[in-house]
Amino acid sequence: MVLSTPGSSVKEQIGANYASRLAARGIATLVFDPAHQGQSGGEPRDLEDPYRRGEDISYAIDALSTLPDIDPERIGVLGICAGGGYAVHTARTDHRIRAVGTVVPGNMGTSFRGFQADGPAAALDGMADARIEETRTGEVTRVNWLPDTLEDAAAAGLTDIDTTQANRRLSRGDSLLLGYDAYHLVDQLMTQPLQVILAGRIGNTGSYESGMQLWKLAPNPVDLMVIEGAGHYEMYDEPEYVDAAVDRLVNFYSDRL
To answer: Label partner for 253 (CA 20 to 30 A): which of 2, 95, 190, 238?
Structure first.
C-alpha cells in the first residue's frame, strides 16, 4: 500500500496515523515525504506541485515492487485530503495500482480556483508578476494554507474549525494548483475499484462535495462511507474516526487486492 498524504503534511503526521493502523492489521504500508517537503529532497522547499505528487506515488510503487515480500500485483493506494486527489489522478494512468482508497478526498484545482475573489485568471496574472519579482530579488514567498489562529480566522470572516489548522506552502506552486484537475478523465481511465470515506459534518473544505463528485465519476465505485459527527480535520487524528475509517479500508483492500 502507498499512502498519499494531505497537502504540505509530512509522513509523521496524518500519514503515520493511518499507516501504523493498516500495518497492524497486516497491510504493508509505505508513507513518505513528498518531494520538496519534509526529509525528501527537491528545491525550492515547501513547493506543493500536484503533478510531482503524482510522480512521487508512482516512484513509491517502483520501490515497493522490488521488495521480496511485496506482490506487485496487489499494490493499492490510499489518499487523504489533497492526497486523495493526487492518488486518484495517478491511478488513472498508473494501472499498477489495483485499488484506490480515499479519505476526505480533495480536488485541489477546484478548491484553489474557488478561493480566488476575482477569478483564477486574474489570480494567475498576479502570480506572474510575483514570479517576476521573486526572480529579480531571489526572495521566495511562503503563505498560509489557512489562518494561523482563531482570531485570524474570525478577522477573515471564517468561523469553521476546519479553517484553523494548516501548514505553509511556497506561493510559487499556486499557479500549478490553479490549473490542476485531479479528476480529469477519471470516468474514462480509472477502472480500479474505489473506496470513498467522508466526514459527515460538512464544513467549508469542500471535501464532502469533492468525494461525492468522485463517487459519481468513477467507473468502478465499490464502497461509500460517511462518518457521522466527524469534521474534515478530525478524520486526520481523532482515534474514534480514524479507527472507523481504517476498519472499512481494511475490508476494502482485503477484498480487492
So the answer is: 238
